[in-house]
Design goal:
385 residues, Aspartate Aminotransferase, domain 1, Aspartate Aminotransferase, domain 2, 2 domains, seven-stranded mixed beta sheet, four-stranded antiparallel beta sheet, 13 helices, globular
């Protein structure tokens, strides 16, 4: 049976080069990076090297990299850490943010004291933030904090983060971007995006789970979520996960070196995939605007996404349905709802997110299998009428 992993926006297989770089730090070089003996010094140097590799990937200095345990922690560190360093005010996020931005922002707005007013910026039917509406909203409610993702995890749609950052900065607001889905797929430059903070994660770029970073402007004031030994410039206490951090650094270096070829390869496969899906009658969400090159979010009308995903899985193809990064909490995608997609069509949503190891043969097999499953489901449906 043909099998193919088409869920790279959820996570990726760790690269062999990354794994090889990590292995010594599990048993041979196992020191605590805070220790002052030789074992600790080796660990500290490994972290310092990784910090520079991550910094180089987005054009910042190593001191601006704050390592965390994951993207969710990094996003929470910005939202809660920045909010607790300021007087309560108005917090703006887009209506399509990942839950690890949406939920802490909502929690800030529900505090019994020192609550922030949360505003969700609307998106157009293509999934991009409506810049005119954003400008009007910020003129009406002076923003204190703003968080806008660079690329959406479901649709792959790219946001005009720099344009929104200019609006935010004109009101002296602090702006953050979750750039996790963009890293390694499109150029990501901290200065060019004009942000004060940025979130990155290792496991979306063929690195390990358990390593991520919040990139910060040197002047940005944050309060930590975790207090303790004062690691990461006092912003993230806890003994560093040296193997994962080492892997993150190597993954960033490889992602930069391979980005152009990876993007070209993914674009070719996705274009072929989408042409064939459209021939089957599919709707492609976000197709009318700029997207990261590996992501195809589609719906075949009257074919439930969850059903198609299960049947494709049994046939050997790993894809995602609905709110793809929240499979433990299924339901209609809030992203598609924000895009004003008809709820019945939204129930049919399936995401394919391609990776460097995928092939044209796999895509062809996927298309043939999808066509067969769709025909079977429609036949069954016709019999029940």
């Amino acid at each position: 049976m043909t099998s193919a992993y088409f869920d790279h926006n959820a996570t990726t297989r760790i690269d062999d080069t990354v794994l090889d770089a990590m292995l010594p730090y599990f048993q041979q070089e196992f020191g605590n990076a805070s220790s002052r003996h030789a074992y600790g010094i080796v660990a500290r140097r490994a972290i310092d090297k990784a910090r520079k590799q991550v910094a180089d990937a987005v054009g910042v200095q190593p001191v601006q990299v704050i390592f965390t345990s994951g993207g969710s922690e990094a996003n929470n560190l910005f939202i809660r850490g920045a909010a607790d360093s300021l007087k309560p005010g108005d917090l703006f996020i887009s209506a399509i943010e990942h839950p690890c931005v949406l939920k802490p922002a909502r929690a800030l707005s529900r505090r019994n004291c020192d609550a922030w007013a949360m505003h969700q910026l609307t998106v157009n039917p293509s999934g991009q933030v409506d810049l005119d509406a954003a400008n009007n909203a910020m003129n009406k409610h002076k923003p204190g904090l703003v968080s806008i993702m660079l690329a959406n995890n479901e649709t792959g749609v790219i946001q005009d983060v720099a344009g929104i950052a200019e609006m935010a900065r004109s009101h002296d607001a602090i702006i953050h971007t979750d750039a996790i889905q963009g890293l390694g797929k499109i150029p990501v430059d901290f200065a060019a995006l004009k942000v004060h903070a940025m979130t990155l994660s290792a496991h979306k770029i063929y690195g390990p789970k358990g390593a991520a970073a919040l990139i910060v402007d040197k002047r940005l004031l944050l309060k930590p979520l975790i207090y303790g030994g004062g690691h990461e410039n006092g912003l993230r206490s806890g003994t560093e996960n040296v193997p994962a951090i080492v892997g993150f650094g190597v993954a960033c270096e490889l992602a930069q070196a391979r980005m152009a070829e990876t993007a070209r390869h993914a674009s070719q496969l996705r274009d072929h995939l989408e042409r064939s899906l459209i021939d089957m009658g599919a709707v492609i969400f976000g197709a009318a605007t700029a997207r990261i090159p590996n992501t195809c979010y589609f719906a075949l009308p009257d074919i439930e996404g969850d059903t198609l995903v299960v049947k494709l899985d049994k046939a050997g193809f790993a894809v995602a349905a609905g709110a793809a990064c929240s499979s433990v909490n299924p339901g209609q995608s809030h992203v598609l709802a924000a895009m004003q997609v008809d709820p019945m069509l939204a129930r049919c949503a399936v995401r394919v997110s391609l990776g460097g190891g995928n092939t044209l043969e796999q895509v062809e097999d996927f298309l043939r299998t999808t066509q067969r499953i769709v025909e079977e489901l429609r036949h069954i449906s016709s019999l029940s009428i």
